[in-house]
Amino acid sequence: MTILAVDFGSTFTKGALVAGDGTVIRTAATPTTGTQGSGDILDGYRTLRRALDVPDDATVHACSSAGGGLRLAVVGYEATVTAQAGHRVGLSAGAKVVHVASGPLTTKEVSGIRAARPDIVLLVGGTDGGNADVLLHNAARLGKAAIGGHGAHAVPIVLAGNIEARDEAAALLAETQRPTILAGNVLPEIGVVAPESARAAIREAFLRHVIGGKGLSKDPAFGTMVEGATPDVVLRGVEVLASRVGGDVLVLDIGGATTDVYSVITPEGEDASLRKDVVATLWHGRTVEGDLGMRWNAPGVLEAAESERLVESVPCWEELRTYAAQLASRPDAVPADDRERRLDVELARLAALVAVRRHARPAQPTESPRPLANVTTLVGSGGVLRHADEAGRERVLGSVLADHAGGWKVPRAAKAEVDASYLLFVAGLLAEQEPDAAAAVAAQI
């Protein structure tokens, strides 16, 4: 058996040809097609198949973040409780959270959701057996709201609130034929976040209602091929890697528009036994920093670095500022010489430091920081690290592991490595149906 794993990205479509035992035969990437209003995304896919010399009988597994990925709006009860829990669960499901609303929805707030253009709305609210009024009010408002269309043509709702009020809320949504997928409560009780049911429901909504409606392909084969949003699949890959190494894992993915941080950690001691926070830590989690990108948001990296007081650590600050401004207007730029490669690494170092600090620090002043001291493996991903030399990789990842002034507990004894062949998504795609092959892929990272 031969397996083709494909990631339809916003810029490149990446693929890996894998033997049945998980041995990676070869990898390739081609520009993504069909995302600019013309062509078809499968045109680039066919080019990728030719580049990889894929057998006709290969089994295909695919994920996608093309066409803007998965845009999610969260509607909750209280901003610091269920809405915050929903936000964290949405990120762990691979979504870009484009809007968060809390409390009883007003006409103005519904307009705000509509303006954010979500693909899915995650409706949460109340612990099990707790207050149901806000959840029911919001279900009624969303059922009547024209968000992405009316009735059956509106964006789907994932309902993941107070389990005792769920059927009544679902009935309110059904009155207008609103597409709805039911899930378990993301916050069944104070101090407990239960992400898996909602994460699976978001994945189902993405596959059933969203991916085929992005206008990326006229061929239904594309919608059939895709099994999930890329960040969700990558998180599954990080889980596979953590199982393989037998320890906590931190992954840093530095992209052109965002910097994503994933961590899979096992709580110990007080973290494992006490519910210290109203919204508990997600032990398998992801954060997305939309202002930290190597191209589109390069100036944002420097602004964030200034806020974090990192300017003095940069030996070429003014030169880097000029370079970042140029990159924002040339998002397809590739370093042309050693000077630009050096500046690219410095920009990546700053993005990495800020992103990991934000991932590790508590979301609210009353919450606990993310316990990363026991991380045994730090994995860097993204084009800048894949193309950097060993010194450049050490400059970026070594700075993260030495960030003792960053306001978080750095890993005590972590090994740093780079996902040079971009295999985390492959492990994630194979995790459910081919777990042994997924583990073998993770061993090659």
TrEMBL record:
The record, for InterPro entries, names: ATPase_NBD, MutL
Domain of life of the native organism: Bacteria
SUPFAM superfamilies per the UniProt record, alphabetical: Actin-like ATPase domain
Q: Which Pfam families does this UniProt record tie to the protein?
A: MutL
Protein name per its UniProtKB record: Glutamate mutase
